[in-house]
Amino acid sequence: MTDTYDLHELMGVIRRAVSEDQAKRRRAASAPEATPFILAVLAMDVEERVREAVAANTSSPSIVLSHLLHDPSEKVRAALASNPTVGADIAEELAKDRSYLVRVALAGNRVTGPALLGYLIADPSWQVREKVVMHRNADAAILSSLAEDDSADVRRAVARNPLTPLTWLRELAMDGDRSVRMGAFGNEAADQDVRQAAEGGMAGRITDSHPAANPSTDPRSLESMCESENWVIRQGVAMNPGAPKDVLMKLAKDRNWQVRRGVAANAKAPKEVLLVLASDANHDVCQAVANNASTPAEILAIALAGLGRRTTVGVI
Q: For residues 199 and 190, what is the distance between their CA atoms, to the nearest angstrom?
């Protein structure tokens, strides 16, 4: 917005701003030549779409944008979150908005910086976390933190991002979800090892003949393998019916949900281990506890209660 206005254009904006026609008021609210006074008036319009246009207008002054921060419409607040001129103080408030659509819009705003993106990686909505991964300001630290996300959509986005560290691309090339593996395969930064693992579908996965999954493997060897940097090996140990209790308990707290799910599905997992996993934050882990025939009734009830809460709450 400039400090001077073309009188003819300004009069046209004013006429539209006071029109009874919603479409005309919306055009006035979108006009780059609209004055702060006109935008302030239209920010209180009864029609949602008019206020939405004000929220998206890069000419809207900060005082008007601050007012729209408390608008009852999530569409208006989402338009505000998409506005590249929104200030840091307003953006921080929008990052805590009750509507995931608003937080998705903020994560997709081209001017959202690494600090705020770092806050949004813990968002309960996978759509928000996926947007974070796709942002041009997402750095290696952010991508690494979401490489083991519960959502396959988020992991696929990480696998496709050319800035994802090669060590994580190698992990994602062996992901349990085919679309994630193919994302790693198509990544321009992928090396030959990544592409071979991804192209092979389940290539690189643990088989029953591998020491990690073999029930006859010495317990000390299994204890050593549970420290492996390769989550696929840790998963093999987690599913091994011959794994010692202390090893399974350690893997029940593993950072990778697929490893924890392996423990939860292990028919030989002690009840103390299953009790820990019954309250896991990941849906698939709790489901594995519920499906495990060895799960005691009282622990099954805990797992089912957690699954029931997730079904009731849904996506935030």
A: 12
Low pLDDT (below 50) residues in the chain = 1-4, 202-204, 310-316
Final residue before a domain boundary, out of 93, 110, 127? 110
Residue type, 25: R
Token match 């083991």: residue?
A: 148
Please give the structure tokens belonging to residue 49: 């779409």
| Parent domain of 129 | 113-204
Is the residue at 154 inside a domain? yes
- Check whether residue 233 and residue 299 sit in a common domain: yes
Q: Which amino acid is at 109?
A: N
The first and second tokens of residue 60, run together, are 């809207």
Query: What does the pLDDT look like over 132-191, one tens digit per residue?
Result: 999 999 999 999 999 989 899 999 999 999 999 999 998 898 887 888 988 999 999 999
Q: What's this model's pTM, rounded to 2 decimal places?
A: 0.67
Positive or negative torsion for Cα 165, 171, 176, 178: positive
Residues 101 and 27 in one domain: yes
So what's the pLDDT on residue 15? 61
